Amino acid sequence: MAAETASPLPSNTFPSQPTKITSIKTLAESPGLTSIPATYTFTPDLHGQATSVPEGSIPVIDYSLLISGTPGQRSEIVHELGRACQDWGFFMVINHGVPQKLLSSILDGCKGFFDLAEEEKQEFKGNNVLDPIRSGTSFNVSVEKAFYWRDFLKVFVHPVFYSPTKPAGLSEISLEYSQRVREIARGLLTGISESLGLEGSYIEKAMDLERGKQIFIANLYPTCPQPELAMGMPPHSDHGLLTLLIQNGIGGLQIQHKGKWVNVGTHSNSFLVNTGDHLEILSNGRYKSVLHRAMVNSKGTRMSIAMAHGPSLDSVVSPAPELLVSSKGDEPAAYIGMKYKDYLELQQSNKLDGKSCLDRVRISAV
């Protein structure tokens, strides 16, 4: 999930389509659309073959046991959190306490934004990767040779809260939603700190989470007539510590596990959580950020809302010193330190390409 530039897409030559496309929704709703323009076509081998894992394979974390379980239950959940971060970089959170009505309301509110007239959405297009409100299409059209079948709304909601003024009611819903999700993320990060053998408040303090960056990203993946040729988002890892995601009931998220792509189904009233690059850096590689991608389909429009949680912009993120010292001898740092703001700008200003940004701070073994 990442910042995106919102420049209009190039004109296309389909006679039934508008001469200027500012959103993939506009293109997808073109009368009689049966194929996609060449500028949206990806080579099929980019997709790779995805598999569906058996029900129950993806780790499930019962949040209620983390915050109000018995000491024994909490200890087990902390252990499960660590194992999920180490083996998957991904897990599902249930019993989180956020009402289903609020989850439905925020999805409806974002649908309302994407349903606005194009000229209204253009009021919020933004220009810079650190603009607090930006809407647009694809990921970074200024550097991409092929575009992604995706529209987005990206908003900074902490430490200062922003929101588009349209549609009516979205600001109030997104404020409540952001606060509830931030509380869950901080609870999870407390458990993750403990799973690393650190104090529960370690990540909170070291990453200055009181001023930590929380970014709200709504993604729209309209129905596509040739889903086998298009991509919603390419394989990438997220910046930050944790990203919590909900979907509208139409699947399309895939994660990479043990070198294979895995379909992630839709699960009502749960959060899908993936670890970010900065948790990998902080843990010195004990926990890995997960590669994931978004696929599109011909049967319905998929929408997701991702909430990314990162350090404060001026935090320099490097491996925790406490994790580099042990009775077995000192462990070399596997990553150099970099200010979170610099990392964010670096990732968001380039093409999405796997873990290419993380590789820039990785120290190669001699």
TrEMBL record:
Q: Which Gene3D superfamilies match?
A: B-lactam Antibiotic, Isopenicillin N Synthase, Chain (2.60.120.330)
Against PROSITE patterns, the record matches this protein to: FE2OG_OXY
Q: Tell me which positions the record assigns to the signal sequence.
A: none
| InterPro entries cross-referenced by the UniProt entry | DIOX_N (IPR026992), IPNS-like_FE2OG_OXY (IPR044861), IPNS-like_sf (IPR027443), Oxoglu/Fe-dep_dioxygenase_dom (IPR005123), Plant_2OG-oxidoreductases (IPR050295)
Residue ranges annotated as coiled coil are: none
Q: Which domain of life is it from?
A: Eukaryota
Membrane keyword on record: no
A single GO molecular-function term is: L-ascorbic acid binding
User: What's in the keyword line of the UniProt record?
Assistant: Iron, Metal-binding, Oxidoreductase, Vitamin C
User: Which SUPFAM superfamilies does this one have?
Assistant: Clavaminate synthase-like
A family per Pfam: 2OG-FeII_Oxy
**Domain annotation Fe2OG dioxygenase: ranges:** 211-311
Q: Which family does it belong to?
A: Belongs to the iron/ascorbate-dependent oxidoreductase family.
Q: Would you tell me the protein name for this molecule? A: Fe2OG dioxygenase domain-containing protein
